[in-house]
Automatic annotation (TrEMBL):
Record keyword Cytoplasm present: no
InterPro entries per the UniProt record, alphabetical: N_methyl_site, Pilin-like, T2SS_GspH, T2SS_protein-GspH, TypeII_GspH
Domain General secretion pathway GspH intervals: 56-179
Domain of life of the source: Bacteria
GO biological process, one term: protein secretion by the type II secretion system
Keyword Zinc attached: no
Record's bilayer topology term: Single-pass membrane protein
TM ranges: 12-42
Keywords, in A-Z order: Cell inner membrane, Cell membrane, Membrane, Methylation, Transmembrane, Transmembrane helix
Cross-referenced SUPFAM superfamilies: Pili subunits (SSF54523)
GO cellular component term, pick one: type II protein secretion system complex
Protein name, UniProt field: Type II secretion system protein H
Gene (UniProt): gspH
Subcellular location(s) per record: Cell inner membrane
Length: 195
């Protein structure tokens, strides 16, 4: 027969058995949280500028490729005006015989990044953003002409463009074209740190 106790000696009622978490469940949650925190730190701090610079260089190479395709399709010349901290797309307007900006403003690089460009092996001195009113007025008077020309035949001005961090040991990336092939992004060997 039955003993005087109900439910037996080793059993706990269903409500009490599900009242807490097991040690394994707590450890699994802690490991998942630690992994997520580690990924957040890596993506935000350590690899941030390198990734951002690589994305910006890829964006510029893609833009030049799209402009080369559009130039052939639209039978129109496009240009890229490069400054130390920005770049802007222009198109040649045949009715006014002038270069016109394609958009309202230039694409600004992060303040820690800079551009340099060589055309046909000759380095160009790139203007910086106007710091005072006089420089801004002089810049508005002079017609802006792009340095890098993309012809309706699909040809591109031979160029070598470097995009990099302003600090001496920073990452430096290069986009270059011989005039016929589209540019690719390459890390410069021997300079800076690898991405």
């Amino acid at each position: 027969m039955r003993s005087g106790r109900q439910g037996g000696s080793g059993r706990v009622s269903g409500a009490l058995a599900s009242a807490g978490f097991t040690l394994i469940e707590v450890l699994v949650v802690m490991v998942v949280m630690a992994c997520m925190a580690g990924l957040a730190v890596i993506s935000a701090g350590v690899a941030g500028p390198t990734r951002e610079l690589t994305n910006e260089a890829d964006r510029l190479a893609g833009l030049i490729g799209v402009l080369a395709d559009e130039a052939v399709l639209d039978n129109r010349e496009y240009g890229l005006r490069v400054e130390r901290d920005s770049y802007q797309v222009y198109y040649y307007d045949e009715t006014s015989a002038r270069w016109q900006p394609l958009s309202d403003g230039a694409r600004q690089l992060p303040e820690w990044a800079e551009l340099t460009i060589e055309l046909d092996g000759e380095p160009l001195v790139l203007p910086a953003r106007a710091n005072d009113e006089k420089q801004a007025k002089d810049a508005k008077k002079a017609p802006l002409v792009p340095q890098l020309i993309i012809l309706s035949s699909g040809e591109i001005s031979p160029f070598r463009l470097e995009m990099g961090e302003r600090r001496r040991d920073g990452l430096r990336l290069q986009l270059s074209s011989d005039g016929f092939r589209l540019p690719r992004v390459e890390a410069l060997g021997g300079k800076g740190r690898a991405g």
